[in-house]
Amino acid sequence: MLSGIQPTADSFHFGNYLGALRQWVALQEDHEAFYCVVDLHAITVEYDPKALRERTRRSAAQLLAAGIDPERSTLFVQSQVPEHAQLAWVMSCITGMGEASRMTQFKDKTAKGGADRATVGLFTYPILQAADILVYQADRVPVGEDQRQHVELTRDLAQRFNHRFGKTFRVPEAYIVKETAKIFDLQDPSSKMSKSGSSPAGIIDLLDEPKASAKKIRSAVTDSGRDVIFDEENKPGVANLLTIYSALTGRKISELEDEYAGRGYGDFKKDLADVVVEFVTPFREKTLTYLDDKAQLDAILAAGAERARAVTEPTLAKVYDRLGFVPGP
Ligand code: ATP
Ligand code: MG
């Protein structure tokens, strides 16, 4: 199993946690798991090098705080494992231009600035992502709904390579938990909560001051009614809050609807704010503790990269052989 997360912000948010990270933690129990902070993906958009280094470490610290066990799972930084980029080149040579042009994330991410101002790296990002997955021979890829199309592309590329050059890759499947596959922006419940796309008021960051998180929940957009009902079409704001509430407490949505029947949004939001504060307070403390010892953190990541390379080097060697390259030194 393989999955990755971008160091594109100072903090992960509840979409990342509920859509992906929570599954990462659960699946490491009975899978051989590879989890990476995908810094090569983060440079596809404008960024500051100093901030990237800091955010990469913060990302790793948050993964540890979330419960990724570096003994059990291989936790590493993508740029420290060169085979990702090497295989991405190979994959780009079997990807059609039309096929790459159909990726909706590129369209979403360039909707504001226009495709002409985007980088080629942002365009080819899904190909690098395919390489991230295939280089580990992963069967399962735990992600949020927004990544389904990229995993589909990965499957197509794996099958195409196998067909053309002989069986080389396992064909992976996305692992998406329906209930929490898409957490929405608190201020704009028609778009997904996103590190790079949401306004600060629309995101609940895992590392926000607990008080700030509570305030964001209380000022989340709902509607002019007062019924706490799960109706994604007509009440997307309330439905989103119910999803988060249910996921964090393990309580059924129907049970929550009953509990808040006739009580209005005020009580509901206040209680959810308490639930969120209870979650983020220890999470934040743990993350900051991991960040206190950068040498230790870097050592965990270096050990992870070494373990990762034990898998990626043989995969790449096999691929190069299949491609007809002359063996090197
Ligand atoms: P960016 O805006 O920089 O793309 P992001 O918030 O989309 O950041 P990623 O690092 O791209 O986060 O994605 C990490 C994981 O979190 C992926 O598996 C992705 O599907 C999942 N994810 C991201 N946003 C959400 C969301 N709103 N709901 C559920 N899952 C999400
Ligand atoms: Mg994203």
Automatic annotation (TrEMBL):
Belongs to the class-I aminoacyl-tRNA synthetase family. This is Tryptophan--tRNA ligase. It is an enzyme of class 6 (ligase). It catalyses: tRNA(Trp) + L-tryptophan + ATP = L-tryptophyl-tRNA(Trp) + AMP + diphosphate + H(+). The lineage of its organism: Bacteria, Bacillati, Actinomycetota, Actinomycetes, Propionibacteriales. Homodimer. It comes from Kribbella karoonensis. It is found in: Cytoplasm. Its EC number is 6.1.1.2. Catalyzes the attachment of tryptophan to tRNA(Trp). GO terms for molecular function: ligase activity. A motif ('KMSKS' region) lies at residues 192-196. The gene is trpS_2. Keywords: Aminoacyl-tRNA synthetase, ATP-binding, Cytoplasm, Ligase, Nucleotide-binding, Protein biosynthesis. PANTHER family: TRYPTOPHAN--TRNA LIGASE, MITOCHONDRIAL (PTHR43766:SF1). Gene3D superfamilies: HUPs (3.40.50.620), Tyrosyl-Transfer RNA Synthetase (1.10.240.10). NCBIfam families: trpS. It comes from the Bacteria. It holds the Pfam family tRNA-synt_1b.
